TrEMBL record:
Highest classification ranks of the organism: Bacteria, Bacillati, Actinomycetota, Actinomycetes, Propionibacteriales
Pfam family, any one: CTP_transf_3
Residue ranges the record marks as coiled coil: none
Name of the protein: Spore coat polysaccharide biosynthesis protein SpsF
GO cellular component: cytosol
PANTHER family from the UniProt entry: 3-DEOXY-MANNO-OCTULOSONATE CYTIDYLYLTRANSFERASE, SPORE COAT POLYSACCHARIDE BIOSYNTHESIS PROTEIN SPSF
Length: 245
């Protein structure tokens, strides 16, 4: 059987509300976007950046061009159509969806998820590691077939479904999806390794500058935060934005 083409599509825009242009902030000589893309590259899967047609996101395109990463540009608000466009342009059979505010996403965890999705051999399967929160925030991924994405693109009418890409799938609005959560027993579900606010930025800066976090996997990062509660406290008070906010 022919091997399915699975690609990672990561969504990026610099007009983020809580921390504007957050992925363009730099630490250890690289932008946070570059740290994120370098982690994804270690999966050995194709990586595609889905950004907007806003002129502000020319910055994103420049970073990607510098590193030979393909970019698809689409609607800022209809992110579902942006992902579908990226999948079509690159002839993907299935996608891994991640977001660019995860500079320390663990490539081994993502690759293992893809292996599981392939092994299940079910085009109606949606796999994620965050249907239930067992990982730190910042490790999240979702995997689904392009066929299911195109179906969502054609049928989703709720504004939240257009904006959040996968809610039509993981809320099973079609009634045809099979959902599978891949849990983690390594702890750390309370931690935030995501870049959404200035306090998240403080923690990530400290991990990257003082602990060489780009070399570390999820378990090692959790161990550092377990051993250094003063670091975990930097962003422990942040509330994650809810779907639709």
């Amino acid at each position: 059987m022919e091997q399915l083409k699975i690609g990672i599509v990561t969504q990026v825009r610099v007009t983020s509300t809580r921390l504007p242009a957050k992925v363009m902030l730099t630490v250890a000589g690289r932008t946070y976007l570059e740290h994120h893309l370098a982690r994804l590259a270690r999966t050995d899967l194709p990586v595609i950046v889905a950004t907007t047609t806003n002129h502000q996101d020319d910055l994103v395109v420049q970073v990607c061009e510098d590193h030979g990463i393909p970019v698809f540009r689409g609607s800022e608000d209809d992110v579902l159509s942006r992902f579908a466009g990226a999948a079509r342009e690159h002839d993907l059979d299935a996608l891994v969806r991640v977001t660019s505010d995860c500079p320390l996403i663990d490539p081994e965890i993502v690759a293992a998820g893809v292996d599981r999705w392939r092994a299940e051999n079910d085009p109606d399967l949606y796999i994620s590691n965050c249907l239930e929160r067992t990982y730190p925030r910042g490790m999240d991924f979702e995997i689904f077939s392009a066929a299911r994405l195109y179906d969502a693109e054609a049928r989703a009418t709720l504004k939240a479904d257009r904006e959040h890409v996968t809610s039509y799938l993981h809320q099973n609005r079609s009634g045809e999806m099979r959902l599978l959560n891949l849990p983690w027993t390594g702890g750390g579900a309370q931690y935030r390794l995501t870049l959404d606010t200035a306090d998240d930025w403080k923690l990530l800066d400290a991990l990257i500058e003082d602990f060489d976090a780009p070399r570390l996997g999820c378990a090692e990062l959790v161990a550092i935060l377990d051993a250094h509660p003063e670091l975990a406290a930097l962003n422990a008070h942040i509330e994650q934005k809810k779907l639709g906010e």
